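Quick one: structure tokens for this chain, please?
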Amino acid sequence: EDERIVAEIMGRRFFPDLITHKTWEGFHFAGHEIRITEATDCYGAVVWPSALVLCYFLETNSKQCNLVDKNVIEIGAGTGLVSIVASLLGAFVTATDLPELLGNLQHNLLQNTKKKCKHQPCVKELSWGIDLEKNFPRSSCHFDYIMAADVVYYHPFLDELLLTFDHLCKNDTVILWAMKFRLEKENKFVDRFQTLFDLEMISNFPSLNIALYKAMRKGRMKA
């Protein structure tokens, strides 16, 4: 079953027939052909398999996870694939990442969502743990969903990442988080995450070493 679904997920990717001056990859999600421009000189501008896993879940569970008119923020949006799919599924999306990635992110969102979405997605800078209240004030920012794909890997900002999840998440916010398990340090982040949030694994793909989680604030999952 794992191999069958993984083959289906990876089958959503396609490549250009002709090599052009711009490097791009194609994906089929939400009834659209999505073209993503990548930059191979940094991690944040490459599409990782966890993003495909999350996009596949959003598309194939659109009834139980109805994004129409929902307020969604993606942290570590990178190339923007997850944000694009959420937008095509009817959400109002804020795609966030580091300042040096925003140009490519904006290009991909505009190219793949203009005149195709109910709500045009927006791009905003978010450096984890920095100026959170200033840029995303708790009093006025309410997100129905926080989405994250492959934000936990070998980097020195895991404390700031947890702080960011905590700041953005209200009592009724749902976190959808796809994670590839690599090293023990990153795995321990899951334990720390569970001190603040109830965590439920909703999909697991051992052949990819990727799990998809749903999370809510501690004690709110059943409610």
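The first strand starts at residue 13 and ends at 14.
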